[in-house]
Write a structure and sequence with these properties.
Radius of gyration of chain B: 16 Å
Number of helices of chain B: 4
Helix content of chain A: 40-55%
Shape of chain B: globular
Number of strands of chain B: 2
Structural class of chain B: mainly alpha
Oligomer: heterodimer
Chain lengths: 167, 106
């Protein structure tokens, strides 16, 4: 059984029929766009503009056919529209394009002891299993010195609830 | 030359080229995209809409909703007085810049 979903875009009366997967792609795109536009006071209007652009392209694609839009077609449309880029000036909302400064923090999500290893994994972009294995082997080899380091880090580092929230 | 150097320059110039395109008369977004598509400044809605919104909040341009022949109503953009002034300023600056580059390279 396949589900199709009827949607309206950008306040226009026209309805479009999407495969469930196509709908997921579109709502994912719009969610990401909304997050990027959060600092923009006219962000809601830009979102509506983007929705109408999707609508125009859907209308051109489907025409008078009574059929639903596939995920591949939706991918093509979203690729043509492109990711929302607010980093066109040096204004206050232009920090989106630049990599954020990474900080070493403890991360509660997925922690085994105090979240030091999850934090190091997020910071170094290594797998948390590798970090833990390294820590355990290192502790054995150094006769427990790394355990002291761990405790020190657990006391020193600031805490984040999840990997996402550490920004 | 390092391509990223040029891309920074392009990014900064895009706004002025949009002023230029919009100055030619009432245009809507597809017109702007089409005019730029064959140039080095080809862009997409994801970049253009936030930029137009920023330029509008700076008072450089404005739009009217207008019915289109086939589809739904569209936003047609035009320059404000301030936008025209800024474009004139930019053109003058650009001319002096190219003269300067010629002169220094002599």
């Amino acid at each position: 059984m396949d589900r199709t979903i009827l949607i309206r875009l950008g306040g226009q009366p026209t309805q479009y029929r999407l495969d469930e997967a196509a709908y997921d792609r579109l709502s994912g795109y719009l969610d990401r766009a909304e997050r990027r536009l959060r600092a923009d006071p006219d962000g809601a209007e830009v979102l509506a503009d983007l929705e109408r652009s999707v609508g125009d392209r859907l209308a051109a694609l489907v025409g008078a056919d009574d059929r639903s839009v596939t995920a591949a077609e939706m991918d093509g449309i979203l690729e043509a529209i492109g990711v929302v880029d607010t980093g066109t000036d040096a204004g206050p909302d232009a920090d989106d394009g630049r990599p954020r400064k990474r900080r070493l923090m403890r991360i509660r999500e997925g922690q085994q002891v105090a979240g030091v290893c999850t934090g190091i994994a997020a910071y170094s972009e290594l797998g948390v299993d590798w970090v833990r294995t390294g820590f355990i082997l290192g502790s054995l080899v150094t006769g427990g010195i790394l355990v002291v380091v761990y405790i020190a880090l657990a006391l020193i580092l600031p805490v984040a609830a999840t990997r996402e929230s550490m920004r | 030359m390092d391509p990223s150097k040029l891309s920074q320059l392009r990014k900064g110039l895009l706004e002025f080229l949009i002023l230029d395109v919009v100055s030619s008369g009432d245009v809507y977004v597809a017109d702007i995209l089409e005019r730029l598509a064959s140039t080095d400044f080809a862009t997409r809605e994801g970049t253009l809409y936030p930029l137009l919104s920023k330029m509008r909040s700076e008072g450089l341009l404005d739009y009217d909703w207008r019915e289109s022949a086939a589809g739904p109503p569209r936003k047609y953009y035009r320059l404000t007085r301030q936008g025209r002034d800024q474009l004139a300023e930019f053109r003058a600056y650009w001319t002096s810049l190219t003269e300067l580059i010629d002169e220094l390279g002599r």
